[in-house]
Amino acid sequence: MHKKFIPAILNILTLCVIISAISIYFINNHDTMGFILIILSLICVSSLIPFKIKFKTILPDIFFGIIDNGILSIMAIFGGHLAGVVGAIMGGVVGNAITDGIAGIFEGYYAEKLRWQLISEERTMLKSAVGKMAGCLLGAGVVLVVANLINFNTL
Predict the structure, then answer these.
(1) Rounded Cα gap, residues 151 and 103, in angstroms
(2) Rg for the chain (alpha carbons), in Å?
(3) pLDDT in tens for each of the 155 residues of the chain?
(4) Taking the CB of residue 55, how many other CB atoms lie within 10 A of it?
(5) Rounded to an integer, what distance in angstroms lies between the CA atom of residue 115 and that of residue 5?
(6) Whose CB has fewer CB within 10 Å in the chain, the N or C terminal residue?
(7) 11-17: long-range contacts (C-beta < 8 A, 24 or more apart)?
(8) CB 32, CB 144: distance < 8 Å
């Protein structure tokens, strides 16, 4: 564990810096922000290649993130549309509380399904962190792409 601890921490922190920097840089590109989040999720997943982590083993965490931030994003968009910044914050907070529970159901179900199929899905710091990061970015990215496609006026 100790041999992998430092590289795992460095990977996660590097992803945090990359995600923050790119998000800040593109924050005003409303038309492309959803696609940028999707690309960032792919960068997260690809960062696991040097660690030889199989994609299937992080799927429960990815599903959690997709559901969690997907619904949270929808709630934040509607909250912002209805009540500005405070509404967006409330939509995000309430959405997060609700989606953590719902996403946990799917994450747990998929983890149990993988174990039933005799696929190791042991939780490690790196798998859980990067899987959830990727899923959260992907969920929010898809919501923003769809909101932009339907021309939702808060974007």
Answers:
(1) 27
(2) 16
(3) 567 889 999 999 999 999 999 999 999 988 899 999 999 999 999 999 999 999 988 988 999 899 889 988 998 898 888 988 898 888 888 888 888 888 888 888 888 888 888 877 677 889 889 999 999 999 999 999 999 898 875 44
(4) 13
(5) 25
(6) N
(7) 11/47, 11/51, 11/126, 11/130, 12/125, 12/126, 12/129, 12/130, 12/133, 14/47, 15/43, 15/44, 15/47, 15/130, 15/133
(8) no
- Tokens coding 121: 């899905």
Question: Cβ distance 19 to 26 under 8 Å?
Answer: no
Determine the residue type at 136. C
